[in-house]
Every structure is written in C-alpha cells, then in structure tokens.
Amino acid sequence: MRNILTPVFLLFFAFGAMAQAGKLKTAQQKMDNLDYIGAIELYNQILEKSDDATAKINLAEAYRKINDTPNAEFWYGQVVRLPQAEPIHKLYYGMMLQRNGKCDVAREWFQQFVDLAPDDQRGQYLLNACDYEEELMTKSVSSYEITNCDFNSASDDFSPFTYKNGLVFSSERDTNPIIRRTHNWTGNPFLELYYVDAKQQGSKENGCGSYTF
C-alpha cells in the first residue's frame, strides 16, 4: 500500500505545482495587460495555497495601481520583509501608510528608502511632508465648506468645464441598467461625459443651485 500511495502523492504534488505555475504565468500576463482586477483574483488564489514571493510583490503592486490603499498597505507590509524586497517597495509601503493616515509609521520606511536610494528625491519629499502633515490637514480648514451638488453621484465626478449654457464633467457613474461595462484596471465603470443645464431652478444657497440633465 505504501508503495502505491507514494507515486500517487507525487503525481498530485506535480499537478498542483503545474497548476500554480500556470496561474502565475496567467496572472503576470494580466499584469502586463493592465488587467489588475483579474491579476488580483489570481494572486489571491495562489497565495491561498503557497507562500510565493512574486505573487505577494505583484499583488501589492496591483492593489496600489487600483488605489486600494488598505490592501496595498497590508501586502507591501509583507513584501518589505521578504529577502526579495527592493528599496522601491519600502517607498511604496511608506506611501500606502501615509495615504492611510499613518505618517508616524511611514517615516521609518521613507527614511530607509532615503538611506538606500539617496539620489531619489521622492523619499525625502515624502519624509518632509510627514513632518508638516498636521499643518497641511488643518490649515484653512474652516475657510471652506464642501457641498455636493444635486447632480453629483457617489462615484468619481471631476474635471468640470462650461459648455454652451451648462456644465460638462467626467464621471464613472454607471447609468446603464442593462449592460455593465467595467474597466479592467479599476473594476469601475468606464468614464463618460455628462452635461448639466445651468438654468437655475432654485436657490444657490448650497453653491450649486438646482440643475437638470
């Protein structure tokens, strides 16, 4: 029985290794094609079964590319402790910590990057930014009040400009109830241009007035 089980076990192990190698290759292709959402799915599957350094590095990168800073912070935290870690990974880890409001921890990693790559000014600039973070976050904070307009959405709305008798802006809101088209990079709907009639329908107390599409 032992003589039978040993080859069977080795066969299953070989198939498992081949499957993981195939997933790693496919995931890398998705990274190369900027399909970060697809790559993230595959790298998470790989890491459920094996502790693969390449998968961790690329997973952190993919999360950073789609601006998922909490997950990027977690995985860069794993990456910087790997033997394969490079100085740039320390910079990215510090950036994710900084973006998540953890400048006190980010300073350490920015400093390590500065020590390892003194000619790269990004580390020093970000290190200095941490030193006056509180001033940046509180300066003139009471001078402005931000209010959503009636035509704003929960998605990203940006780059407004006047056009004819209204306002044109970009948005990644999903307005098609039948067909959902998403971008491989972000997993969000594709950007579209929207127009708002600037004809005032009500009060401008909120800084927007009332608009109709």
Keywords:
213 residues; three-stranded antiparallel beta sheet; 2 domains; 53% helix; mainly alpha; Serine Threonine Protein Phosphatase 5, Tetratricopeptide repeat; flat; 8 helices; 3 strands
Nearest-integer average pLDDT: 80
CATH architecture of the largest domain: Alpha Horseshoe
Specify Rg, calculated over alpha carbons: 24 Å
The total tally of domains equals: 2
Going by CATH, the homologous superfamily of the largest domain would be Tetratricopeptide repeat domain
Placed side by side, the strands forming the largest sheet appear as 1-2-3
| pLDDT < 50 stretches | 8-16
- State the helix count: 8
Sketch the major β-sheet: 3 strands, antiparallel
Reading off the top of the CATH hierarchy, the class of the largest domain is best stated as: Mainly Alpha
CATH topology of the largest domain: Serine Threonine Protein Phosphatase 5, Tetratricopeptide repeat
Please state the overall shape, judged from the principal axes of the Cα atoms: flat
- Overall helicity: 40-55%
